[in-house]
Amino acid sequence: MTILAKHNAYKLAYDALREHGVDPLNVRFDSVLSPTEGILNGKRTILIGTHNYLGLTFDPDCIEKAVEATRSQGTGTTGSRVANGNYDGHLRLEKALAEFYGRDHAMVFSTGYQANLGVLSTLVGRGDHLMLDADSHASIYDGSRLGHAEVIRFRHNNPDDLYKRLRRLAGAPGDRLIVVEGIYSMLGDTAPLKEIAAVKRETGAYLLVDEAHSLGVLGATGRGLAEAAGVEDDVDFIVGTFSKSLGSVGGFCVSNSPDFDVMRIVCRPYMFTASLPPSVIASTLQALIKIQTKPSLRVDLMRNARRFYDGLAAMGFQVGPEANPIVAVAMPDQDTAVAFWKMLMESGLYLNLAVPPATPTNTPLLRTIVSAAHTLSQIDTALAIFADVGRRLGLLTADRRRAGASS
Amino acid sequence: MDSLGVMDFVMAIEDFYDISIPLDRIAQVQTVGDLIHAVEALRSGAPA
Q1: What b/e sequence results for A279-293 when a residue is b if at least 16 CB atoms lie within 10 Å of its CB, and e otherwise?
Q2: What mean pLDDT is predicted for residues A253-268?
Q3: Quick one: A141 and A200 in the same domain?
Q4: Are A366 and A329 in contact, with CB atoms under 8 Å apart?
Q5: A69-109 confidence digits (pLDDT tens)
Q6: Which DSSP helix (H) or strand (E) runs through A133?
Q7: Which residues does chain A have within 8 Å of residue B22's beta carbon, measured at their own beta carbons?
Q8: A308 lies in which domain range?
Q9: Distances in Å between the alpha carbon of A237 and those of A142, A246, A253?
Q10: Which of A1, A80, A300, A313 is the most exposed place for a label (fewest CB within 10 A)?
Q11: How many Å apart are CA A295 and CA A215, to the nearest integer?
Q12: pLDDT digits (tens, 9 = 90+) for A12-58
């Protein structure tokens, strides 16, 4: 018995997965060549499983700004903003984010995970009520545990269930905060934000939207689902990340709340961690400019997403409910999923294998993530590889057109 | 029962009794008796 023996159930499940000769939780790239290509096990591979939505990780301007910032300001800040001081870049990035969203305030965190930890645990506390979509990301659940609010889950993307639960709280003291995501990371589905905003208005709750996967992806100017759904005025807080469409790392929150800045002296995941290094701030600022000056990136992204989603659906694969950059393919069982994933990699295609309990359905998923940087030829190659592996595994024979369709 | 099964089960109980069981209370439930106690406490509006 060791102190870690309490996690044996997880270890056994992981070991069982690795007996197939794969380790989906520990993939190692020999090198990364571009936003869409890398060398994996010595083989040139198309990357269609990273959240590089706009392909900005290799943008020459972003790289140049990062290099310039490192040369002029050094590799790191070596401290937190409250204890060791702000760099000019932190403040400029916050101003740029506030302007981009048309909001009064913005706050930058060192990761998206910490943004959710910090914001959720600070906005609501003991005696308040936190209403979470059941399929919320781990950072939202963890943020709910760091604070002391009462946490109530509502059925995924179900405004009626949310309303019912808020109605049950009628008369109870305390603030109510509803938390939803712009695009959910496992199936690529969006929240029914118009309907959720209506529930929010009727019940007097606050609304927070995590736009981690929708910043730069949805909305006429890339501001996310709130913009696309036309309900920005109803959204009190937007949380997001720099590590997907903006190609770096870090998190943020924007709001019009007049006393927003008090968070800087009470929000522990903001206060007690090192601030982002100058290079990250500089490339993120540049990427934010790209989002605004190159709307064609969003057009390319959605064109690729639609082509890939429609292509897989036409072959008979069971995909998620909407054509978005995250395209999840349901697999009938874990053995098939692992074999499929392994054969895709051997054919030069890298994507994510997600198994329960990380998946919202009880089935394993092959999760693909399309980028604006994919060429149409890469998308078509990926589709051809899917068709080939699907046929070899007997999932696409004529009498089994609904491969993986378990429900 | 896996974690999804537990969630569906809890939500069915919530619908039946027209209550919401907060996450921290679900975490404390180990036995059927615990569950009955939590539901009764929530229905009577008393703290668990």
Answers
A1: bbbbbbbbbbebbee
A2: 98
A3: yes
A4: yes
A5: 999 999 999 999 999 999 999 999 999 999 999 999 999 99
A6: strand A129-133
A7: 150-152
A8: 5-57+295-400
A9: 18, 20, 7
A10: A1
A11: 13
A12: 988 988 888 888 888 999 999 999 999 999 999 999 999 999 999 99
Residues of A in contact with B24 (CB under 8 A): 150-151
A40 residue type, one letter: L
Half-sphere exposure of A184 (CA within 13 A, CB side): 25
The length of chain A in residues reads 407
The two structure tokens encoding residue A388: 């080939």
Q: How many CB atoms lie within 10 A of CB A354?
A: 20
Please enumerate in sequence order all residues whose Cβ is within 8 A of that of B36, keeping only pairs 6 or more positions apart, or say none: none
Task: Burial-class residue A164 by CB neighbours within 10 Å (0-12, 13-18, 19+).
Answer: middle
Within 10 angstroms of residue A82's Cβ, the number of other Cβ atoms is 14
Binary contact (A356, B24; C-beta < 8 A): no
Residue A97 to residues A88, A93, A202, A294, A403, Cα–Cα distance (Å): 14, 6, 29, 17, 43
Domain membership of residue A272 (yes or no) is yes
Residue A332 lies in a domain: yes
* Domains: count for chain A: 2
DSSP tag of A6: G
Residue A269 and residue A117 in contact, taking contact as beta carbons nearer than 8 Å: yes
Q: Is A342 among the residues known to form the active site?
A: no
∠ Cα A322 A130 A276 (to 5°):
75
Contact A155 B2 (CB under 8 A): no
Evaluated on CA atoms A37, A39, A45, A49, the torsion sign reads negative
ipTM: 0.89
Mutate to test the interface with A, among B7, B9, B20 (most CBs of A within 10 A): B20
CATH number at residue A389: 3.90.1150.10
> Which residues of A are less than 8 Å from B18 in CB distance?
168
Give the end of a domain, one of A261, A278, A293. A293
Write the CB contacts of A88 (distance below 8 Å, at least 6 apart in sequence).
Answer: none
> What CATH number does residue A241 fall under?
3.40.640.10
Q: Which residues contact A334 (CB under 8 A, 6 or more apart)?
A: A17, A355, A364
Residue A211 has pLDDT above 80, yes or no: yes
CA–CA separation, A277 and A285 (whole Å): 13
Query: Does residue A213 have an active-site annotation?
Result: yes
- Give me the sheet containing A326-330, strands edge to edge: A326-330, A365-369, A352-354
Alpha-carbon dihedral A187, A349, A30, A12, rounded to 10 degrees:
50
Domain boundary among A293, A321, A348: A293
A205 forms beta bridges with none
